[in-house]
Amino acid sequence: MSTEARRREIVHIAGQSGSVDGAALAVRLDVARETVRRDLRALENHGLVRRTHGGALGA
């Protein structure tokens, strides 16, 4: 899965459930936790999610 597709999926999941857990995202997307953290930082910088301790909230 490309970076862009993975980030779209994270935004979609956060939008549906209201929040996402970083560890659960890593398992679901089959990537390292650091990859999820990097994606969440990038998405937060674009105003698409709001990071929390261990995850994020849909924006």
Structure description:
It is a single chain. The protein has 59 residues and is α+β, with helices and mostly antiparallel strands. It has one domain (3-53): Orthogonal Bundle (Arc Repressor Mutant, subunit A). It has helices spanning 3-17, 22-29, 33-45, and strands at 19-21, 49-52, 55-58. The chain has a 3-stranded antiparallel beta sheet with strand order 1-3-2. The protein is globular and about 25 Å long. Residues 3-58 form the HTH deoR-type domain.
By DSSP, the count of extended strands is 3
Mean pLDDT: 92
Shape: globular
Q: What Rg is obtained from the alpha carbons, in whole angstroms?
A: 10 Å
> What ranges have pLDDT less than 50 throughout 5 or more consecutive residues?
none
Domains (count): 1
The helix fraction, in percent, is 55-70%
Q: For the largest sheet, list the strands in their spatial order.
A: 1-3-2
CATH homolog superfamily? Winged helix-like DNA-binding domain superfamily/Winged helix DNA-binding domain
Beta fraction:
15-25%
CATH class (first level) name = Mainly Alpha
